[in-house]
Amino acid sequence: MKNAKHAKCVKCGKIYEATPDLTNCSCGGILEIVYDYDYIKTILNKDILAARTDRSMWRYRELLPIEETTENTPLRVGWSPLYEEPRLAELLGLGRLWVKDDGQNPTASLKDRASAMAVAKAREAGAQVIACSSTGNAASSLAGNAAAAGLRTYIFVPSRAPKGKVAQLQIFGATVISVQGSYEDTFELSKAAIEKWGWYNRNAAINPYLSEGKKTVTLEIMEQLGWQVPDYIALSVGDGCTIAGAWKGLKDLYAVGLIDRLPRLISVQAEGCCPLNRAIAANEPWRPMEENTLADSIAVGVPRNADKALMAIRESNGIVVNVSDEEILAAQRLLGRTCGVFGEPAGVTGTAGVKKLCEQGILGKNDTVVSVVTGNGLKDVANAIKAAGEPISIPGTMDALLAAFAEKGIVVE
Ligand SMILES: *Cc1c(COP(=O)(O)O)cnc(C)c1O
Ligand SMILES: [Zn+2]
Predict the structure, then answer these.
(1) DSSP 26-51
(2) How many Å lie between the centroid of ligand 2 and the Cα of residue 17?
(3) Domain segments of the chain: what residues?
(4) Atom of ligand 1 nearest to the CA of 375
(5) Quick check: 322 pLDDT over 80?
(6) Are strands 264-270 and 232-236 parallel, antiparallel or unpaired?
(7) Which CATH number is 82-108+210-388's, of 1.50.10.20, 3.40.50.300, 3.40.50.1110, 3.40.50.1100?
(8) CA of 288 to the centre of ligand 2 (A)
(9) Ligand 2 centre from 16 Cα, in Å?
(10) pLDDT recorded at residue 203
(11) Which atom of ligand 1 lies nearest, measured to the CA of 245?
(12) Ligand 1, from 30, 134, 242: best to mutate by most atoms within 8 Å of Cβ?
């Protein structure tokens, strides 16, 4: 790799050669990939990108830690739509609002960006088998992207994982281990199994390449906005890899001169599980919390990427906000009704946070915001029905229809 120099521990600063099977530093710290921005400036600019026909995350190869000879992974990951939402902006009282629908990735979540990177690096490492533990989406995205590339997967999920995600795993042919315990228990078992059998490790935060894949979400947002930087980018936060990756992408763009300022991050967590936001708000070290929210993808009591996530929020002068499960379900309905975007609970949590900040008067008419929807609502149908209720159920007759409309007060114009 000519564009990437090495990996560096965010805790102790130790430098590692950027081999494809990197994991944590010997001090336990998380590694970060360091680029040669002067070199990248000579091979990448706005015109080169504008002329590029690749509509996937791999259009940003110059900013990604892969060998020039490494093939693009087979599924189309990335280049999800960024919709401007003037009606929702008006409703919330915001200046301008865009929604990035990352539920439109091949396995229907932003995690595809990290998993495609894991598959590319596993191929570089010559691995045939990849393993991970996950609240659900990292798992299904790994299983799908690996299946397309002809690699096998061992996947550990907590038994609470929604059926839609487990169904994806089964269909993609993963060997699935449903662990009767928390995400923390699941993670620890996967770690032990990976050590025992030497599988390629796609565990969040352990593998420093994953957040490099995730950063493509902000590379895209900025290109889709014509390099006009919004004031804020809102994201839901669990392990912290997504928000850390998003920030890395923005800093990369700034370093190579593609953007001229940096937005502020909005970190949104669930009230029942917000160890990172609590640490920021109280300005104290993070402590574990219970995993008490229906937004399963961000029910992470022991965040794996706390250091990088906290750094990203602080460096960006970010805002933290926690939302209740009720507020998450309300945001799910609101996005569906005003934007036609269907997100899973954790997928819409960022938007729930934006709504709350508007109601609190922290965001308003002078602000421009991008809200990332990180996963598709079909993954967790049970909670969607909880949010929106059951349909009108009647026998198939006009009389029954008229009676039901009368009962519900529905007046057809
Ligand atoms: C994983 C996930 C998140 C949070 O990402 P982290 O890297 O764990 O912070 C948010 N939304 C969805 C849908 C996810 O799958
Ligand atoms: Zn270290």
Answers:
(1) TTSPPEEEEE-HHHHHHH--HHHHHT
(2) 14
(3) 82-108+210-388
(4) 13
(5) yes
(6) parallel
(7) 3.40.50.1100
(8) 22
(9) 10
(10) 87
(11) 7
(12) 242
